[in-house]
Amino acid sequence: MGLGGSFDETSSFMAEFLKKCGGYAVVDGGFATELERHGADLNDPLWSAKCLITSPHLVKRVHLDYLDAGANIITSGSYQGTIQGFEAKGFTKEEGEGLLKKSVELACEARAIYYDRCTKDSWDYFTQNNNSNNATSLTLSRPVLVAASVGSYGAYLADGSEYTGKYGDEVSVERLKDFHRRRVQVLANSGADLIAFETTPNKIEAQAYVEVVEEEEIDIPVWMSFSSTDGMNSASGDSMMECAAIADSCKQVVAIGINCTPPRFITNLISCLRKVSCKPIVIYPNSGETYDSGSKKWIRSNGVVEEDFVSCVRKWQEAGASLFGGCCRTTPNTIRAISKLLSGNSSNYKA
């Protein structure tokens, strides 16, 4: 059911997908948040990727929760899954590669289960189309993509640097390329529709991603999303416009966006992205809380009152974004509310 195209087709990939979805798309929400709600213990350097080993059934269940909530795009449980991280746990390189592939397989299986349910439960999920021979065929009226998640180098370090981008002077673009290269190769051939480079905290990692994609001739689309703590710059302090320009320079990048960032910063960040790119913008903020790497807990910022998350979606859409979801501490309820709002079926519900 994948929609991935060849290298020459990627420029129109996201535009065509958005057209199929009605002009906007809904991305899933917090993955680890839901795994923990279902009883998973994620106190581990692998974080949510631990469940690929211990609880694959929960991974699939969370994907289904988000599909049922209205998501058009679900992201694999590979955000903190790295070959190096799996090797540190005693797995071989080949076994680590197998776990990366498994993360995508589980998402694809969840999509297949969801489609099967739709087929059995309601014909409302399908539309009739006449082909050139005047024969009528049925296609899904709500297509779903599987995005293979790639977290930052800082996520692998599990020291909080994914939220600051402060990797030290010894970490160069070349070192980051060496770190990410094999994981990107594996995920590009895993059956995913696209690769999602998420929570990118600085421009050197963005540059590393672009060079790996181009050097390895990755032939599926990718998106790149950045994090920010001030509404103007990436988490490291690099100009968001400079970061976005790096992403925009890569033909395979079909969308650029912001994730794991407080909602109050999003509107201005969309403006920053739009100044340097005409590509679709994907927005999936966190709940507005801040992660404390020392206590490993999410805390509310003192004196800061967040706007209602879902009520901001229309404002973000008007600012130029076209893909909307949630990151840390958001739930299927959040995604359901976003989906209802965008489809015109909103109520007074607040996620």
* Order of helical and strand elements: HEHHHEHHEEEHHEHEHEHEEEHEH
Name of the level-1 CATH class: Alpha Beta
Superfamily at the CATH H level?
A: Homocysteine-binding-like domain
Strand arrangement, largest sheet? Answer: 1-12-9-8-7-6-5-2
Helix/strand-derived category reads: alpha/beta
Query: Which value, in Å, is the CA radius of gyration?
Result: 19 Å
Taking all residues together, what is the mean pLDDT?
88
Overall 3D form: globular
Head-to-tail CA distance between termini: 31 Å
Helical content class: 40-55%
Query: How many domains make up the coordinates?
Result: 1
Give the uncertain stretches in residue-range form: 1-8, 131-139, 302-306, 347-351
Structural description of this entry:
The chain is α/β, with parallel strands linked by helices. It has a single domain (7-343), classed as TIM Barrel. The protein is built from 13 helices and 12 strands. The chain has helices at 10-21, 31-37, 51-54, 56-69, 83-88, 93-121, 153-157, 173-188, 203-215, 240-248, 266-276, 313-319, 332-343, and strands spanning 25-26, 73-75, 126-130, 136-140, 145-150, 194-200, 222-226, 253-259, 281-284, 290-292, 297-299, 323-324. An 8-stranded parallel β-sheet has the order 1-12-9-8-7-6-5-2. Strands 3-4 form a two-stranded antiparallel sheet. Strand 10 (290-292) and strand 11 (297-299) form a beta hairpin. Helix 8 crosses helix 9. The longest helix is centred in the first third of the chain and has 29 residues, at 93-121. The radius of gyration is 19 Å and the shape is globular. The two termini are 31 Å apart.
